[in-house]
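Bumping my old thread because nobody answered last time. Still need a sequence for this structure:
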């Protein structure tokens, strides 16, 4: 099973989801902005991606620029912040067989899908 963390309002996220669907694989769509996402789930995503939580942040977002930029925050702070403000999470994130990738551009999903 492939899970795509998706925002249907985001062009890049739609392109990533379309790419994954085009492989014919069974896909679970996780609309994390509408459904919500826990701090623990954010932490698990960063572990699967092999990145620090700050690397998952959409720094171009107004909320980040006005409230979070240049703050010295811990990883645990970021897990909570991203859970409370899921629009700040980069997308789409594709998860397959215990691996994950930020699928921007969409073809990056192939890095883990080809090994599924």
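Sorry it took so long. Here it is:
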């Amino acid at each position: 099973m492939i899970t795509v963390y998706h925002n249907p309002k985001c062009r890049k996220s739609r392109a990533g989801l379309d790419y994954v669907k085009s492989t014919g694989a069974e896909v679970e769509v996780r609309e994390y902005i509408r459904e919500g996402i826990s701090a623990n789930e954010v932490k698990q995503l960063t572990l699967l991606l092999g990145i620090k939580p700050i690397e998952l942040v959409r720094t171009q977002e107004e909320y980040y620029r006005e409230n979070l930029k240049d703050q010295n925050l811990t990883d645990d702070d970021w897990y909570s912040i991203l859970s409370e403000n899921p629009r700040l999470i980069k997308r789409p994130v594709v998860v397959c067989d215990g691996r994950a990738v930020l699928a921007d551009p969409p073809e990056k999903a192939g890095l883990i899908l080809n090994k599924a």
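The longest helix spans residues 11-22. Let me know if any region looks off to you.
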